[in-house]
Predict the structure.
Amino acid sequence: MSRRNRAVLIGISLIGTALLILLDRDFVSPRWSDLLTPREQTLATDLERYHGKSFPVVRVVDGDTVHLGVADSADEVTKVRLIGIDAPEMGSGDRERMDYAQEATAATKRLTLSQSATVYLDQQAGSRDRYERLLAYLQLPDGRFLNEELLSEGFAYADLRFKHGYYQKYQQLEASARALKKGLWAHVTIDQMPPWRQKRMRTTGNED
């Protein structure tokens, strides 16, 4: 093949590649994005913005809710709800503080405040809850995951209401903490548990 013919073929290949890129950007991508549900579109956006990236923890609301020092839509911070766990709530307004809420909140403060945490999302769980908080696993600087640490030490319940990628593992972590009577499991009664947990236990007769 002559140099000229080779040059023509290379030119055609380059033009073809450029057209494919142009088509992908201007025509193909919008069609595919139109097929996504609002939940999937939100997840895709959040994955690009947060997944695998580190941000400073600037506030701890309670054991399972923290604020990251990065803007989220119109908010100056990103409100994060930890996936797979339910820590006792501190209470506000007409809501009473739950048993072991102070201890759980203190544990999260000790592990996160003034440090950066790496965010990991879960496609099965989705990326937002009904309050538009980011649903996430938070990895601490030493490699541990905050969600798992709180469960393992008895500062939170495994949240059995919603499926996620580590659903069974989190049940096992809670069961271990419960067997060893760690944290809240040393004394908690059914009446001191979250309402959803009370209902589940009274219906099934089991803690799992």
Q: What stands out?
A: The chain has two domains: 3-35, 39-204.
